[in-house]
Write a structure and sequence with these properties.
EC 1.-.-.-, Gluconate_2DH_su3, oxidoreductase activity, mainly alpha, oxidoreductase, 177 residues
């Protein structure tokens, strides 16, 4: 290796180490969630109730407690096109409208069985927007829940390398010797 190339690489690595802390400190939880502004506060509350209906609290935390609604909002805002975002917002309005039509109250005020009935009705509807909304929200909710910190640290066993290597194991001869 030539001396100039080595000095250039060394200077670049030193410079990046000095700049890295300033760059990393600019990221915060609040900054990351500012991009998801596609919902109003009432829609965020409605979405929290919907994800809680999909994965309710039992002996483990529910989706609402793990803030999966924020994950769903962030995923739809950042990873999906305008058509999917439109389906998402129309589906939220449809869920509230269906709950009002069937039970005379908003989705958030319904009983858990009534909420589940509204979502099941939307999943089986002929309306492509309602069916697409339920599929979208259900898939992202499950993805967010299974990849949440709680599930990954408390419910799943992480193995760095699947399988085992036992380097020192007694070997017996096939003939029994």
């Amino acid at each position: 290796m030539q001396r100039r190339a080595a000095l250039k690489t060394f200077a670049l690595s030193i410079g990046s180490t000095l700049v890295l802390p300033a760059w990393a400190n600019a990221w915060s939880k609040e900054n990351l969630h500012q991009s998801a502004t596609i919902l109003s506060s009432s829609q965020e509350t409605l979405l929290a109730e919907i994800v809680e209906t999909i994965i309710p609290k039992t002996d483990t935390p529910g989706a609402k407690e793990l803030n999966i609604d924020k994950f769903v909002t962030l995923m739809v805002a950042d990873c999906y096109d305008a058509k999917a975002q439109d389906t998402f917002t129309k589906g939220l309005a449809a869920a509230d409208a269906n709950a009002t039509k069937d039970y005379g109250k908003a989705f958030a005020e319904c009983e858990p069985a009534q909420k589940l009935a509204v979502l099941n009705k939307m999943a089986k509807a002929d309306n492509a927007t309602e069916k697409g909304f339920i599929g979208l929200v259900k898939n992202i909710t499950i993805q967010g829940y299974l990849n949440s910190e709680y599930v990954m640290t408390n419910l799943r066993v992480y193995e760095f390398i699947p399988g085992r290597y036992h380097g020192c194991v007694p070997v017996k001869n096939q003939a029994g010797k």
